[in-house]
Amino acid sequence: MTKTLLKMRIVILSIALLLCSVCVSQAYEDTSLEDDDFAEFEQFEADEDTPSNDFSEEEVPVLKPKLNVNKEQFETNIDADDIVVEDEDNEFEHFQDPEEFEGYQDTTPRTAEQPKITISQVPIMIRPRWDAYWLEGILCCLLAAYALAYVIGRTKNTAIATNFLKLHKPLLDENFTLVGESGLDVVSADERGWRREAEHCFTMWCSGRQCCEGMLLTLKLIKRQDLVHVLLGVVRPTPDTLLIRVELGKDDCDPFVLCIAQKKIATRLAKEMQDLSMFCPERRAGDKHGLPAALGVLSECAEATAGVLDARVTAALQRYHAHVQYIHVSDRYCGPKQMEETVATKPPETERVMLVSLALGPDGGGDEVRPLLLLVFYLLDKIKRLRLSKEALSKCEKRRVKATEAWVRGAHAARQEQAAQRREEKRKQEKERILAEDDPEKQRRWELKEQKRQQKRKAPKMKQLKVKAL
Fold first, then answer.
1. Residues 253 and 331: beta-carbon distance below 8 Å
2. With contact defined as beta carbons under 8 Å apart, do 179 and 192 qualify?
3. How far apart are CA 52 and CA 68, in angstroms?
4. pLDDT (tens digit, 9 = 90+) per residue, 288-345?
5. In whole angstroms, what separates CA 102 from the centre of its chain?
6. Which residues pair with residue 334 across a beta bridge?
7. CB 229 within 8 Å of CB 196
8. Which SS3 state, helix, strand or coil, does residue 143 take?
9. CA angle, 73 as apex, 72 and 75 as ends, to 5°?
């Protein structure tokens, strides 16, 4: 009896648990899917009448999707044009599958025409903003300043040259027959005067005087027309200079070289000028010759120095030494030294000249120019009358002979070096030509020949003496 009751209780408990599970499942069932567009799958039995070749005779259940869609909603949302026929050969069928675009609702109506893009015409408002052109403004100001400085500087240089000519042309007319040039490039078209070589450089040729063949005046002023040079001149000022080049005749000067210059300029000239570096290797202080300590003397012959620097010349140099840059007298003047790279095939042409460089004061000089011009004319007459002794003259001639021989040896060594370079280039070309050929026998003969040449070159040179048989 007890066993029967126990079985009944187990059956009733199992039925109650089953009913509870069914109720819980119905309670948590999602009822919102009933009216939705998503598909709900149901189980159908397979058709018994359809034969199957691939499976056994047992019945196989097949799951087919069934779409529960409201009929009215289907008719309103789907048109005949939206129906897509599935084709197995269409590789883009996934674009037509609505399930690929879940949650996307295309509300835009589909039309056959492409949408038109209209661009509205917005008026352009141009407003002047000068602060955006500050760089252009600075450049324009610089160009205007440069142009203004050019006009002002050119005018001032022309005025200085004209003023110099007015002050000192009477003195030049007293010493020379022909003063100045005439033409299109002269400063003043009415009379003979300066010839404009540049905006800051003027030249004037004077001729027709004893003790010289002619004199060339070159007025080199500050580049006042160049704004950059003017600004640099504030940091490192340079004066206006007057360069005087006097061409002496063959009988107007004995053979000697003499230079009186400021100490810094004398050092520079001794290194750069060919005649000073060759004939005047030593530099002496000016106070040893009665000159100011700021001046230095480069002299080849002491007798010539004593003859030129008399009391009048010494007094003028002591008074105006600040305006005298250098006085260079030479019978072998050939300009600056030649570069080592250039090889001269003939000796340089020499001239008998006297070069004078004068530093002018502000505005083209003043009262110091006339005494210095008179000093130049006095030196011309002094050099013309100066005659060296036989001993001093012979020493000077010997120095010139040695200098000529040294130049000839240097030129010969340079020619030999050039010839050696040409032979070496020729051997290199021959070697390249031999190595380019495919003839080992010819290459071997050329190597033997080259070895013999090298051995002969390294062998000591010996003299052969012929002895006559008795």
1. yes
2. yes
3. 29
4. 888 888 999 998 888 888 888 889 999 999 999 889 999 999 988 888 887 655 555 6
5. 69
6. none
7. no
8. helix
9. 65
